[in-house]
Structure formats: structure tokens, C-alpha cells
Write a structure and sequence with these properties.
Order of helices and strands: HHHHHHH
Number of strands: 0
Radius of gyration: 16 Å
Length: 164
């Protein structure tokens, strides 16, 4: 698909940003691992955050490869499904933690919604790429931006808010 080639520089930049942010999140986890483990909703949230950043990284690298739109679409769809599964597990852990820790339900609802907002564009984009529709690239852009913003939020929670 020629349209994917036009996004080359974007994929290069996204891969670098995702790798750097994944490193930041992993450092945040390692610095506060004992505190993170005290809250049942945080380890799955941390894993889902890393998975979302790895999704951006791997989709970016796949976008740089010389391959068909079908192959790229299958990769986006498959990788998105794995990240979505990890996000769904994190969401369930957050809902369960509400019951155990008497945490405000609104926190879990926000986590579920933000998890879906960042990952559903990848699933739809994968399907549209398989269908050969270049509009899929704009959905990837939306997904990339959502993952980067929300991962920074999660990094803040894991690094700073957990100490309050």
C-alpha cells in the first residue's frame, strides 16, 4: 500500500517515542514495585501500559517494513488484540479493587474507558487495512496519540501519585 510509505517518518518518530516512554514506565515500575504490589489494580495497569507502548512500537516497526496492506493489517489486528486483552484484564482488576479497597468507582470507570479509547482504534484500523482502506492510517494516528498521552498519565500515577 503506497499510502503506508507516506507515513514512514511518522512511524520512525512513533517508534522512538514509544520505546522511550516504555523505558520510563519500566523505570517507574522498578522504583516503586513494592508500593505497586500493595494495590491489586496497579500491577495489571502497569502491564497494560507497557503493552500499549509496545503495541505502538511494534505497529510502527511493522509499518516501516516492505509488506502488503493485508499483512500489515493482520499484524495491527493481532497485536492490537493482545494489547486489548491485557487492558481488559487490567480493567477487571480495577473493578475488583473497587470492591476490596473501597476505591471510588469513578476511578475504575475512567480506567476502563481510557483503555478502550486507546486500543479500539488499532482493532478497527487493522480491519480497515485488511480491507485495503487507507483511512485506517488515520485511526492508527488516533490510537498512537491516545496511547502516548494515557501512558504518560499512567507513568505519573506509577511514579508520583503512588507516593501520596
Amino acid at each position: 500500500m503506497r499510502e503506508v510509505e507516506a507515513w514512514h517518518e511518522f512511524f520512525v518518530a512513533a517508534a522512538g517515542a514509544a520505546a522511550a516512554l516504555a523505558g520510563l514506565v519500566i523505570v517507574a515500575i522498578s522504583v516503586n514495585v513494592e508500593r505497586i504490589l500493595k494495590y491489586p489494580q496497579l500491577p495489571p495497569r502497569a502491564a497494560a501500559t507497557v503493552a500499549a507502548l509496545v503495541l505502538v512500537l511494534t505497529v510502527s516497526l511493522a509499518g516501516l517494513a516492505d509488506q502488503t496492506a493485508l499483512a500489515f493489517g493482520l499484524e495491527v489486528l493481532g497485536l492490537g488484540a493482545v494489547a486489548w486483552y491485557l487492558q481488559a484484564r487490567a480493567s477487571l482488576a480495577g473493578i475488583r479493587a473497587d470492591r476490596q479497597n473501597r476505591r471510588p468507582r469513578s476511578e475504575a470507570i475512567v480506567e476502563v474507558l481510557t483503555g478502550q479509547v486507546q486500543l479500539l482504534p488499532f482493532l478497527v484500523a487493522g480491519a480497515l487495512l485488511i480491507a485495503g482502506l487507507p483511512v485506517a492510517l488515520y485511526l492508527l494516528l488516533a490510537g498512537f496519540l491516545a496511547v502516548l498521552v494515557l501512558s504518560m498519565t499512567n507513568a505519573w500515577v506509577l511514579l508520583v501519585e503512588i507516593l501520596r
